[in-house]
Amino acid sequence: MREDETVATIVGVHGIGKYRYYQDAGRSVSGAAEAVRTKWNRYLHAGLPGGTAHRGESYITEIAYYAHHLCAPGRSLARPARAMDAESQRVFLDWATQLDGVRDAAGESLTGALRWATEFLLGKLERRAAEFATLFCPEVAVYLESANGPARSAARRTVAEVIRRNRPQVVIAHSLGSVVAYETLHANPDLKVELLITLGSPLGMRNVVFERLLPAPLAGKGGRPDGVTRWVNIADKDDIAAIPPALRSCFTGVDHDGMVDLDWIDFHTVEKYLGSGALAPFLKPYL
Predict the structure, then answer these.
(1) Which helix (H) or strand (E) holds 62?
(2) What pTM does this model have?
(3) Does domain 10-71+152-286 sit in CATH 2.40.10?
């Protein structure tokens, strides 16, 4: 904590599936961010020692809300996998074929593989996981479709503005938010963060995310942003977005890889991660 402050500042960077908050808030970015922040505070409180009911305690200073930048005109972020555009289908297939058994069974046909993978997910992973699959790929595809595309640039600019305005000691980034935060911190070395916590991160996912990161990995390795003092990564062992769950194998500067066992169906939600108790030892100096 900086000497001139008595209360730590924590910024959150949300993950997938948060566009509905923008809609519910009447297309207000600040309203959406506040709605997400309210939930994050409640979820995080549940994961802190004490076991008391949440009574409005505030831990998260601001949520860097960027979901509205990823909803391109005419493109839905919640469509069945078979209705995705070509780029979203490619991302979906690259992701799905990393699951045990899918690559061998899928074959070489994109259409056949996509159908097989979709049916496999719908039949084997239950309703929550299937919903997750239809959300994950379109948003990632929109963000990663070009190195300096408008959606990617706008999302990073939004996250940078929130971090620069709040000067947080801690940034907690979930899901796709970990990719946005990683690239943002690399692109803005003036942003200094004592602790970066990534939750359920797809940063190391081959063929989907890893090779497309900015800056590009060197010799098969990404690296901790220069402005980050410490990097803690936490992933559920069954989180199919976090492949691989541990990031040390593909990133230098990861100080801690923590594995948790959240819920075999509800394996990726920020509620489960924040409420797991896994963040408490790392956040203790800041709360």
Answers:
(1) strand 62-64
(2) 0.82
(3) no
